[in-house]
Amino acid sequence: MLVGTYNPLLVVVSYVVAAFASYVALDMAGRIAASDGWVSRSWLIGGAVAMGFGIWSMHFLGMLAFQLPIPQGYDLAVTLYSLLIAICSSAYALYVISGRDLPLRKLGVAAVILGAGIAAMHYVGMEAMHMQPGIDYHPGWFALSILIAIVAAGAALWIAFSLRREGAGVLRARGLAALVMGVAVVGMHYTGMAAARFPEGSICGAAIAGGISPQWLASLVGATTFAILGMALTTSILDRRLQERTALLSHSLHKANQELTYLALHDNLTKLPNRLLLEDRLEHAIRRAVRNGQRFALLFIDLDGFKAVNDAYGHPVGDRLLVQVARHLTAEIRAEDTLARLGGDEFVVLADIREPGDAATLADKLLHAVSMPVLLERGELNVTGSIGLAIFGADGTSARELMANADAAMYSAKEQGRNVYCFFEPSMNRGAHEQLALVQDLRRALSLEQFELHYQPKLRAPDGPLVGVEALLRWHHHERGLVMPDTFIPLAEKTGLILEIGRWVINEACRQLMEWRAQGSEVPSVSVNLSATQFRSPGLLGKIKEALARHGMPPSSLILEITESTAMHDPEASLVILQRLSALGVQISIDDFGTGYSSLLYLKRLPASELKIDRAFVKDLVPGSEDAAIVSAIIALGRTLNLSVIAEGVETEAQQKLLTELGCTSLQGYHFGRPDAAASIGARL
Questions:
Q1: CA distance linking residue 345 with residue 192, whole number of Å
Q2: Spatial contact of 326 and 383, defined as CB atoms under 8 Å apart
Q3: Which residues pair with 385 in a beta bridge?
Q4: Are the C-beta atoms of 485 and 473 separated by less than 8 Å?
Q5: Which stretches make up the GGDEF domain (predicted)?
Q6: From residue 587, how far is each of 130, 321, 536, 556 by CA, in Å?
Q7: Helix locations, 331-398, DSSP H
């Protein structure tokens, strides 16, 4: 028998190649598992080529490490055929471990097929030498090499399947596994070589027939294998980093989408669900109630006096108050209930109930939560709430109905004195619809010329002469007839229409006064009432200047009446406005005096020329009464401050006489004439 020897360096190199090929195979398995579609198939093909070349090159490096005392060579066609077997076996291995699972039976069958393929690659590669006579294999060693190939294949498949995931610590585990798999592959090869017996006098047919020389094959195998394995590993690493970056970007995008979704569905200040999320949950609650026959309540909460907090302390303090109120309300509801903020100081609670009494109990808790004191840097603040309740089924079956009816019930609670809750009743909705229709008609009233000014004379006490007239607004509605100011002025204030209506009133009053004067009627002045909204509007001064200039009216002939409560709401700001108006030359009258709790400190600073006693003190005026004492004090105060004092609401001769005796400067009321249209007043003048 010919005795072969091994080159230790090439043996070591063959192991390195086996371990390197194993690592590439493990990495490729991870790439395949992390991909899908044509990308996964591309990684499968590339991985099969790289892994096949790695196993095949390890085999031929091991063959080159084996040296016989005769010339050696290899048939190129058979060598390439063995390479094809290695690639096909590798492709099958990667395909097996790319599946979702790897049960024991499937692993066993795959191990037999892959092990047989590796063994076939080895023994076909041995046949590339064309030994004459043929190689004699020891049965025991031959069987052992096949067994090692199958066991190694099974172990390799299991390890590759276990380590195909990506994550922390996986790269180190793959490195250790590659070393173990390299030992298994090398062990199979050298066990197979140990089984080979070369009879004395054997010759290598491939060397005689001009086959590939070992030196040339070594260069080809080494360069090709390391190039392919290196490219495969580099591509895999770059792809992994790209996927990691893509995953990071995807995670960031997902997180950003979550944040955007949260912001779109939640109130930015209180972090409560907003109107959009409430409507979605309300629709779900309706479907659930219809399906299961359940009931739920919708509670509409509006804070009482919140605007005053904003005006007095500023919006930042108001915002912190809203946040604290939201926390108090959240503490009173169950986890399955919904508390939403619609905007401003409006909150809505959606809660499952068994009977209306449960909703009433919850409303009581919520009222208590709203009224809890809130500690802020400016001290302790207290607000109350008004709650309207609508029950699904009884008060509506759609989201729109329930919201509208709960809102109507809330306004009814406001009208009942606030800090109460109120269940919806159909009459509330009718009133709300009527009010809405009135607002729509009010918007068109100016363009349709439905407004008219009536005028009421003001006389010097006791019975003349005329000192002026007061312009009083009337609305001639096409269906309702004459609508009085106490009906539509609050709506005009609420909707902001009061600014345009007020501009028209000032302009028309100035026009009418100058028309009377042109007709020869000497009317000393005309008084116009300013609403709180109108008084604080930035354009008030400009509108008055415009009206005076348009009609050529002396500013002193215009008297602007501001209620005492309006002037005292923010005394410092009111003082600035009144000083600007006074500088313009118009006169200022403090209306409804005695009802607004004026501070004398501010009153003496106001540039007013007239105090107007409220009709509430005149209505029951009799000698010796409390009203007489109050009127007397007001008149005395007016004289001290050099102000004219006019009493309105004079309806009887007795009132006329007593007010004159008390020292009232001027009188106004039904006793001297009811408010009437300009034509009628002009004729009387």
A1: 86
A2: no
A3: 303
A4: yes
A5: 294-426
A6: 127, 41, 17, 6
A7: 356-371
637 contacts: CB under 8 Å, gap ≥ 6 = 600, 611
d(CA 557, CA 585): 9
468 in Cβ contact with 685 (< 8 Å) = no
| Residue at 75: amino acid letter | D
What value does the mean pLDDT take over residues 52-72? Answer: 71
For residues 554 and 305, which has the higher predicted lDDT (pLDDT)?
Answer: 554
* Same structural domain, 406 and 443: no
Interatomic CA distance for residues 566 and 572, integer angstroms: 12
- Residue 322 and residue 225 share a domain: no
Q: What is the pLDDT of residue 557?
A: 93
At which of 400, 424, 448 does a domain end? 424
Q: Is 197 left (phi over 0), alpha (psi -120 to 50) or beta?
A: beta
Clarify whether residues 296 and 389 are in a common domain. Answer: yes
Between CA 391 and CA 397 the distance in angstroms is 9
Q: How far apart are CA 20 and CA 14, in angstroms?
A: 10
Element (H, E) at 150: helix 139-162
Is residue 12, in this structure, part of any structural domain at all? yes
Element (H, E) at 133: none
Compute CA distances 270 → 266, 299, 307, 324, whole Å.
8, 18, 18, 9
Listed in sequence order, the DSSP H helices in 590-677 are 600-603, 615-619, 626-640, 653-662
22-36, 145-159, 448-462, 669-683: segment of lowest average pLDDT: 22-36
Q: 401 and 458 share a domain?
A: no
User: Residue 96 — very low, low, confident or very high, per pLDDT cuts 50/70/90?
Assistant: confident
Examine residue 103 and state whether it is found in any structural domain, yes or no: yes
The better pLDDT of the pair 389, 198 is held by 389
What is the rounded CA–CA span in Å between residue 170 and residue 156?
16
- Shared domain for 216 and 176, answered yes or no, is yes
Q: What are residue 266's DSSP bridge partners?
A: 273
Identify the bridge partners of residue 374 per DSSP, sorted by sequence position: 381
Tokens of 378: 């400016």
State if pTM tops 0.85.
Answer: no
Same domain, 391 and 473: no
* d(C-alpha 525, C-alpha 675), whole Å: 16
- Helix (H) or strand (E) run with residue 644 in it: strand 644-647
What is the tally of structural domains in the chain? 3
Residue at 431 is within a domain: no
Question: Residue 366's pLDDT band (boundaries 50, 70, 90)?
Answer: very high
- The CATH code of the domain that includes 529 is 3.20.20.450
- Rounded Cα distance between 651 and 667, Å, is 10
648 contacts 590 by C-beta, under 8 angstroms:
no
CA 312, 316, 322: angle at the middle one, nearest 5?
90
Residue 497: per-residue pLDDT: 86
Q: Please spell the DSSP secondary structure of 425-465, one letter per residue.
A: -HHHHHHHHHHHHHHHHHHHHTTTT-EEEEEEEEEETTT--
Residue 68 CA to residue 458 CA, distance in Å, equals: 138
Q: In what order do the strands lie in the sheet with 421-423?
A: 338-343, 346-353, 295-304, 384-391, 421-423
CB-CB neighbours of 566 under 10 Å: 21
Query: Which of these, 589, 583, 630, 586, lies nearest to 611 by C-alpha position?
Result: 589
Range of the domain at 445: 436-683
The answer to whether residue 266 is domain-embedded is no
- Look at the alpha carbons of 146, 147, 153, 156 in this order and tell me if their dihedral is positive or negative: negative
Q: Say if residues 86 and 122 touch (Cβ distance below 8 Å).
A: no
- Angle at CA 654, nearest 5°, toward 650 and 659? 60
**Residue whose entry in the numeric block shows the structure tokens 């000192």:** 467
Q: Are residues 397 and 444 in the same domain?
A: no
Residue 302 bridge partners (DSSP): 346, 386
Highest mean pLDDT (candidates 94-98, 320-324, 445-449): 320-324
- Token pair recorded at residue 343: 């905007």
